[in-house]
Specification:
The chain is mainly α. It has two domains: 40 residues, no CATH class; 127 residues, Cytochrome Bc1 Complex, Chain D, domain 2 (Orthogonal Bundle), CATH 1.10.760. It is 37% helix and 2% strand. The protein is built from nine helices and two strands. The chain has a two-stranded antiparallel ribbon with strand order 1-2. The longest helix is centred in the first third of the chain and has 14 residues. It is globular. The two termini are 25 Å apart. 19% of the residues are buried. Heme C binds next to helix 5 and helix 7.
Length: 202
């Protein structure tokens, strides 16, 4: 990586401009620092939800999302909808995968049987742009994810969290829930020129 950066004239220049005090600025540390600094500039809080501009359908979807029956907001909470409301780690087994799956989730790191199939709660922001879904991309559409929640995960799933019990929605309610989820998307972040790759502009 360092070789590639050092042999690229544009990057050499950029590193020198950004890290004026370093004699040789192309270091692993500076690369990490640069990427982290860039990521921190990606701020996405311009969705309809953030602007408090939810229409009636989206409002109803929000109510379903927070309802006792669906319990979505129990796990998907906080400003990015990726934190549980109750005091616990942010890793859960949603029961969408059976024991034949390749990625064993948190278990792969802890080797604790209780962590089998637990994945970190992902943000629900900008779902319009981030298909396919789930850790392995196995759900092509949001409808498929909602269907998995509706049926309460796979019948043969092991170690499933007790909040994944399944529930019934009529087609109108399903559209309302979908509408709410989509209202968390912010198109300004993907059309912002600041994030255009300068190398693609000639
Ligand atoms: C027990 C905690 C829990 C509850 C309750 C819960 N989720 Fe999740 N959710 C998760 C976890 C963990 C994942 C990640 C699963 C994976 O990657 O395999 C996830 C993934 C998702 C995803 C996929 C996001 C992506 O980018 O891949 C969506 C959409 C979603 N949940 C919506 C909902 C909705 C809607 C509800 C309510 C019906 C809900 N969740 C209830 C924990 C929960």
């Amino acid at each position: 990586m360092l070789k590639r950066f050092s042999s690229d004239k544009v990057y050499q220049q950029l590193f020198q401009t950004a890290f004026t005090k370093d004699e040789n600025p192309v270091t692993v540390k500076n690369v990490q620092y640069s990427i982290a600094s860039f990521i921190k500039t990606i701020v996405s809080f311009q969705s309809a939800y953030d602007k408090k501009m939810l229409n009636e359908t989206e409002q109803k979807g929000l109510q379903l999302f927070q309802s006792k029956e669906l319990k979505c907001s129990q796990c998907h909470s906080g400003v990015n909808f990726n934190q549980p409301q109750f005091q616990t780690s942010p890793y859960f087994n949603t029961g969408f995968f059976t024991d034949t799956f390749v990625n064993k989730g948190l278990f792969a790191f802890t080797k604790n049987k209780n962590d089998w199939g637990k994945y970190k709660v992902p943000t629900l922001r900008n779902l319009v742009f981030t298909a396919p879904y789930l850790h392995d991309g196995s759900a092509e559409t949001l409808e498929q994810v909602i269907q998995l929640y509706e049926q309460g995960g796979k019948p043969s799933a092991v170690n499933k969290h007790l909040f994944i019990t399944g529930f019934k929605l009529n087609s109108q309610q399903r559209s309302e829930l979908m509408a709410f989820l989509l209202s968390l998307s912010d198109s300004t972040v993907i059309t912002n020129n600041v994030f255009t790759n300068p190398w693609t502009i000639k």
